[in-house]
Amino acid sequence: MNHSKLKRGIIFYSLATLIAIFMLLPFFWMISTSLKNSGAVMTIPIKWIPENPSLDAYIRVFNIFPFARAIFNSVFVAVVTTLITVLSAAMAAYIFAKFEFKGREILFSLYLATLMIPKQVTMIPNFLIIREFGLLNTFTGLMLPSLFNAFATFMLRQNIKTVPNSYIEAAIMEGSSQFKIFKDIVLPLVKPTLATLTVITFMEAWNRYLWPLIVLTDRSKMTLPVGLSLLNGQYGEQYNLLMAGSLISIIPMLLVYIFAQKYFEKGLSVGGIKG
Amino acid sequence: MIFYNKKNKYLTIFLFLLPSVLGLIIFGILPMLGSLTLSFSEWDIISGPPKLIGLDNFINILKGNEFWRVLNNILYYIILYIPLILISSLSLALLLNNKFKGIKIYRTLYYIPVITSWVAGSLIWKIVLNPQFGVLNNLLNFIGLQGPGWLYDQSWAMPGIVLASIWKDVGFFGLILFSGLRGISPTYYEAAEIDGANSWQRFKSITLPLISPTLLFVIIISLINSFQLFPQVMIMTQGGPNGATQVMVERIYKYAFQYYKMGYASAFSWLLFIIVFVVTLLQMKLQKRWVHYES
């Protein structure tokens, strides 16, 4: 018994470690490459650990591209997008869950129908609309479409439905305004769903590439993914630069992940439903 | 139902729905209609209004080679990606389903590629896959194999992208399957053990059928994702070499925002929608044959 348990343990740890190496090796290579100088990037045999590590690539990458600015832009856009998405969805979800009115079902099925349509279909007209509003190359234009999020509305509606009517009725009797009921009763009761959605939306907004690529053209407005792809377009062969940029772009999200790991795992297993 | 003061009620409904419904109309419904109209038009965005040309865009797309080459590329991706992601994420989930010390640390590590943005992940893999100076070919060399030209080679570029995608996605799908595994009641396994079933039999007759709904979910999501492949291609190959990694979204993006053929690009995007829709329907139909739902 003990013997087979030991055997299982050995198999488990060797497999788990092997997979971990596969997952982390590219990151190790990224760090190693980013610390090499331009000449050392292309040598055979390859050097796992740079011989003369230098921060050259990091200094250059900040000189070539306003990276500090891009980090700020990315954080700002991700935070505000998340706020807009979750708040607007929660407000709509409250109405769909707790109010009866003519056309409610039709309106809600319109929400659900949009879930089937790939973003790429509406992308071109959305660009034209943003352009018509004169909002190209602005954060407003980038984030405005987040007002509508069918998936978040759906998730929150399902959850708000479970809030007992009596709580809301009691508050109405006491003369609370609807805004106060929404803020003080409804939202606190659906906190776990709000947390999950916050994580999903934040990650999506942080990683978004295609839409910012279309909307943002000014270098000082760019978010990290767009900035990185610009760097790739102009310095595609300077691997140490590209890796320094990648590492910088990964760190903020990694920090958020480490502090909110619980919510990430939950959020992503729910977010998978959306695809 | 809750009793509301009538005047108050409609004002509340209006105000609370306003942001979301405005978004739905302006960025959901109008663009749908606009995209449909554009797909039947010719328009270069600069000169004049769009000109209606009927089905010409669709006919031109379907008649040309490019669309079929793109589909072919995506199929190549799917054929490699789907079996690999299923096997690797299911193995990962089974591994994580053990109770060993330190398993949380491993889970954290496996998850790092998932939270890495696609653009950064693609850049890293572009460098890992470099035929001469990259890690992968040097490792292959180490065990005596001559690695291919990966992203520089017409037939190896797509497998290179598949490798990057597996690396990026396995943690995510592994986690989804892991939650599926945890939902299986231990009593099934206990009963099987009493009946003397070995571990392969237990896997085949208990784990696999009971996790089949989750597997179906993984397949549908990864198929839909496969048709929407984009950042990997844009960063790693730009559709090359020689069109070998051109995919639908990359084509749509380039037609619309580099060649300014808005109508043609819109028609392309509707074809993408139709394909994704049909694939999802087919999967839903086929599932009856192999997916097992607990009653």
How would you describe the overall organization of this protein?
- The complex is a heterodimer of chains A (275) and B (295).
- Chain A has 275 residues and is mainly alpha-helical.
- Chain A has one domain: MetI-like fold (Orthogonal Bundle), CATH 1.10.3720.
- Chain A has helices at 2-34, 38-41, 56-64, 67-98, 104-114, 119-132, 139-143, 150-160, 165-173, 178-189, 191-207, 210-215, 224-234, 239-259, 261-271.
- In chain A, helix 4 crosses helix 8 and helix 4 (67-98) packs antiparallel against helix 11 (191-207).
- Chain A starts with a helix and ends with a helix.
- In chain A, 45% of the residues are buried.
- By secondary structure, chain B is mostly helical.
- Chain B contains 12 helices and 2 strands, in the order αββααααααααααα.
- Chain B has helices at 6-39, 56-63, 66-96, 103-115, 118-128, 135-142, 157-182, 186-194, 199-227, 231-236, 248-257, 262-290; strands spanning 41-42, 51-52.
- In chain B, strands 1-2 form a two-stranded antiparallel sheet.
- Classes of the chains: A mainly alpha (275), B mainly alpha (295).
- At the A-B interface, helix 1, helix 4, helix 5, helix 6 and helix 9 of A face helix 1, helix 4, helix 5, helix 7 and helix 9 of B.
Q: If you average the pLDDT of chain A, what whole number results?
A: 89
Oligomer: heterodimer
| Rg of Cα set of chain B | 24 Å
Discrete helix count of chain A: 15
Report the strand count of chain B. 2
What Rg of chain A, in angstroms, do the CA atoms define?
A: 24 Å
H/I helix tally of chain B: 12
Largest sheet features of chain A: none
Distance between the termini of chain B: 33 Å
Count of individual domains of chain B: 2
Instruction: Give the SSE string of chain B.
Output: HEEHHHHHHHHHHH
CATH fold description of chain A:
MetI-like fold
Strand/helix succession of chain A: HHHHHHHHHHHHHHH
